[in-house]
Amino acid sequence: MNRAEKTQAIEGLQKEFTEAGAVFLTDYRGLKVNKLTQLRFELNKANASFKVIKNRLALRALDPEIAKGMETHFDDMTAVTIARGDIASSAKALTKFAKDNENLKIKVGLLDGKIISVEEITALSKLPSRQELLAQLLGVWTAVPAGFVRVLNAVPAGWVNVLDSLRRKRDSGGA
């Protein structure tokens, strides 16, 4: 790879890193090609990509302060997962695959310019997806007006019940 190709690759990585919602580093040593293909397919469904890139190029593409903190994690066979859309679903796909395949080891992540640990990535994977959060929010929004309508309906319904019981009592000859 000549200098111009390296510069172009670094610029492309810089653009991807800045546009990404999160970046996860993994050690993929020992994974077969079919498993890597399966992982790429699962991550693609979550709007994320799995790339094997040269460690030096990746470090040069990162902000110098961030690169200094992540330098120790870019060793041997490191792959980069770039999450573009829903970060939680990307983290879910990655952690689920790592749980099913012991050869994939999550090293560290980068979220909003901060380095996050494996535990934080696991916690992120347990969050509901964006669609689930929107559904929960919609449920909350509809619950308040529905409860209000039930309360407003309770007073007339009570009067109807009282009048109905009086009518039944009168018809039975009790009044």
Q: Could you characterize what this model shows?
A:
- The protein is α+β, with helices and mostly antiparallel strands and 175 residues long.
- It has two domains: 3-127, 2-Layer Sandwich (Alpha-Beta Plaits); 128-175.
- Helix content is 62%, strand content 15%.
- It contains seven helices and five strands, in the order αβαβααβαββαα.
- The chain has helices spanning 3-19, 33-45, 55-61, 64-70, 87-100, 118-125, 130-171, and strands spanning 22-27, 48-52, 78-83, 105-111, 114-116.
- Strands 2-3-1-4-5 form a five-stranded antiparallel sheet, with helices on both faces.
- The protein starts with a helix and ends with a helix.
- The model has no long low-confidence stretch (mean pLDDT 87).
Fold topology:
Elements (H helix, E strand, L loop, with lengths): L2 H17 L2 E6 L5 H13 L2 E5 L2 H7 L2 H7 L7 E6 L3 H14 L4 E7 L2 E3 L1 H8 L4 H42 L4
Antiparallel strand pairs: 1-3, 1-4, 2-3, 4-5
Helix pairs in contact: 1-3, 5-6
In helices, the fraction of residues equals: 55-70%
The CATH superfamily of the largest domain appears as Ribosomal protein L10, N-terminal RNA-binding domain
Uncertain parts = none
How many domains, as an integer? 2
Strand content: 15-25%
Structural category is alpha+beta
Question: Count the helices. How many?
Answer: 7
Rg from Cα: 28 Å
CATH topology of the largest domain: Alpha-Beta Plaits
H-E string: HEHEHHEHEEHH
Mean pLDDT over the residues = 87
Short description:
The chain has 175 residues and is an alpha+beta fold.
What keyword list fits this structure?
five-stranded antiparallel sheet; 5 strands; elongated; 7 helices; 62% helix; Alpha-Beta Plaits; 175 residues; alpha+beta; 2 domains
